[in-house]
Amino acid sequence: MLGGFPEISRTDLKGSANFFAKLRREHPSQSANDALQRGVDCGAGIGRVTAGFLSTVCEVVDVVEPVGKFAQEVVGQKMVGGGSVGRVYVTGLEEWVPEARYDLIWNQWCLGHLTDKQLVAYLERCKKAVTIDGWVIVKENMSTNVNGDDIFDQTDSSVTRTDQKFRKLFKEADMRLIKTEVQRGFPKGLYPVRFYALKP
Ligand SMILES: C[S@@+](CC[C@H](N)C(=O)[O-])C[C@H]1O[C@@H](n2cnc3c(N)ncnc32)[C@H](O)[C@@H]1O
Prior knowledge:
Layout: H1 6-26, E1 36-42, H2 48-57, E2 58-64, H3 68-76, E3 84-89, E4 102-108, H4 116-129, E5 130-141, E6 151-153, E7 158-160, H5 163-172, E8 176-182, E9 193-199
Parallel strand pairs: 1-2, 1-4, 2-3, 4-5
Antiparallel strand pairs: 5-9, 6-7, 8-9
Helix pairs in contact: 1-2
């Protein structure tokens, strides 16, 4: 989970901050420069993104993570920004029904644990949970399969999807793709990583 790769994690967090800042500049809302009231880190792991990025843009960050011992660690993380950890949901995203309204729903390196059908149903729930000026962000590895297929990993039952597959599933969920970009600066040999900014 990048714990042993601080340099990659730093590049990743900086890339996320840059992408989100650009997005907010290009699509200004009334509260363009204010901290967002509530965000959620989905598939948060030990809270690397919560602590290192989301706490810098949100006042409160909720957490969804199915592994209890990871979720517990989030609360003990030192936040880089002024935001704090809010509600912690120990559950998978396929089961999670948002109870709050969110200005930012951040999904990173976790959607491969959902089947295509579960992902579409999940995005449909996100659609109802995002505020009018809010964003659903997906940041995931991209399949590099030469035939343009998704790559299944039997060991952890996850899937690395193609860019085309993600776009197809966003359409199925009736989410609009507003901006997409590849994360820069990662070492060669890793899967390319792509951001998608979505709105209902
Ligand atoms: C590679 S880690 C990424 C953690 C964090 N998003 C980050 O970028 O540092 C994948 C995380 O997805 C979580 N996960 C596994 N199955 C999941 C599911 N069904 N729903 C949500 N998260 C899941 C794992 O427990 C793990 O914490």
